[in-house]
Amino acid sequence: MFWVKKVVSQAIMPIPFILLLLLLSFLVWRKPRLAKWAIGGAFTLLLVLSSQLSVDYLVKPLETQYPINSTPIAGTCVVMVLGSAHSDIQGATAVQSLSAVALARLTEGLRQLQLGQDCTLVVSGWEGELTQRPHAEVMAKAAVELGVDATRIVQLPLPRDTIEEAHYFKEHFGNQAVRLVTSASHMPRSMAIFSGQGLTASAAPTDFRARDGFYWRLTADNLLASQRAIHEYIGRLWLWIKQE
User: Fold this and answer.
1) Taking the alpha carbons of 187, 193, 194, 199 in that order, is the dihedral positive or negative?
2) Angle, to 10 degrees, between the axis of helix 32-49 and the axis of helix 220-243?
3) I need a surface site. Which of 55, 69, 100, 126 has the fewest CB within 10 A?
4) pLDDT tens digit sequence for 104-135
5) pTM across the whole model
6) d(Cα 27, Cα 38) in Å, to the nearest integer?
């Protein structure tokens, strides 16, 4: 089921879906009306999703649900940074191996650690299919490179997605409150998942992608932000289906 979800979600992401529409237009070229609809749909999707319009109506509603968190943390605390991605780059440090998203999340996690006096840093993520080391291991090494004491870090190397991250966190820490760090667009779904597991989490969003811009300017950054937002809406739909 995990891989079915991955394949289906990727197939309806903007770029693959636009390419599918263009491919369809070639396959039905003997039916001009249908071919025109396919090409028009592909053009419209590319135009809208790479524009500021998409950022305002898809991305911002997700990223504005939880504000930046600078509230001091009292007593013993746990800061959990949700996993993202890394690459096995020959000769690279752990920090250099992290994706931009993973580095943004880890940086915010370290800032959250400084808001408390006795905090544990939790990092998670499996090795996937393209890397040899679990993402949690690389994140932990990167945190050490950035000055965190290794004894303050707990690795959860088995979770493959956010649902499993919440499950393994509860298995390891019980119902202990957690300061949750992830991308701003991913935060609403993450909070829903952790709450659904009976966990008390306070949001610490980072990696904001929504930026103000001109409506006539089409950029790859807008397209990427739109793709991430669509991924989140699909994820929330999947979560709703599982709960029914």
Assistant:
1) positive
2) 100
3) 100
4) 999 999 999 999 988 999 999 998 767 889 99
5) 0.90
6) 10
